[in-house]
Amino acid sequence: MLNRVNQAQRPFVIIGHRGATTHKDLSRVMPENTLLAFESAQQQEVGIELDVMTTKDGKVVVHHDFKTGRTFQLPGEQKQVGRTNWQELQKARFNFTEYQQAMQRVMGQAVHCKNTDRFENLQIPELETVLNRLPNTPVYIELKTAGLFGNRHLERKVVDTIREKGLQNQVTVLSFSPLSLWKVKRQDPQIQTALNVLLPGFVPRVPLLQKLFVNWFAKRLLGVDAIHPSYARTTPELVQLSHQAGLRVVPWVHGETRDQEQEKFPKLRAMGVDGLITNAVDLLNEEVKNHP
């Protein structure tokens, strides 16, 4: 009963996927994983999801892809972020052409951004810089690791940064790597963790597998605080099992357009999810206000 009461008391949270990147007002469309996108999310009073990895010389930077090119380009050959020093990575410049194409896919229409001069001096930010700029904002840090076994340098540095800034109650660490989350909990049990999952389609059709996944694997073995499934793989049964185990459920956008997200929103809320990681912050915020 206690788990159910706590679940009911938790506020529903909207989280900007890589920041608040899209908006019905095109002048407020922002590049992912940049200070512009994070400040936009902060202004809209929502949580922020971001991705981190380490450079060759050990800096924790906010970047989604393991290689430069799609969002930020280096002069000449594009490089692996993990094999590039921080000083060289700062020379990368924003890729406006690819950005417009990406926004067109998400928005479901041609995008002609306004005031593009604001993008000229954008750089890949450090995690520490971002956290310093986001006081009192819930931050969801996804550890980008090449495999399931994690990256001990990344995990340790992220935990150290959270501790140094006293943000254990403000930050949640996410990962697709179970071992990474297990390590984070071992280093600091106070830090909230969430397992990103893209469950095979057959798992929801086998109740025993789903129960083992939630109760034994996620709750007991990893000790996570939440499960983050994709929109398409979120089911009422998964939400119910997770809540019974005391775990929050926060689905994440996986290729949906803004219109598709808005269409799915009532169904996901009806399942009892605890929040959404979304590319449509402005639309879903409006939905929450209209249907609290």
Keywords:
TIM Barrel, 38% helix, nine-stranded mixed β-sheet, 292 residues, alpha/beta, globular
SS-derived structural category = alpha/beta
Gap from first CA to last CA: 23 Å
SSE order in H/E notation?
A: HEHEEEHEHHEHEHEHEHEHEH
The total of helices stands at 11
Tell me which oligomeric state these chains represent. single chain
Tell me about the biggest sheet?
A: 9 strands, mixed
Rg on CA atoms, Å: 19 Å
What is the correct CATH architecture?
Alpha-Beta Barrel
CATH class equals: Alpha Beta
Counted beta strands? 11
The outline comes out as globular
Kindly state the percentage of residues in helix.
Answer: 25-40%
- Mean pLDDT reading: 90
Question: Could you say what the CATH topology is called?
Answer: TIM Barrel
CATH superfamily: Phosphatidylinositol (PI) phosphodiesterase
Low-confidence stretches: 1-8
Number of domains: 1
Strand content: 15-25%
Summarize the structure.
The chain has 292 residues and is α/β, with parallel strands linked by helices. It has eleven helices and eleven strands. Strands 1, 2, 3, 6, 7, 8, 9, 10 and 11 form a nine-stranded mixed β-sheet that branches. It has a two-stranded antiparallel ribbon with strand order 4-5.
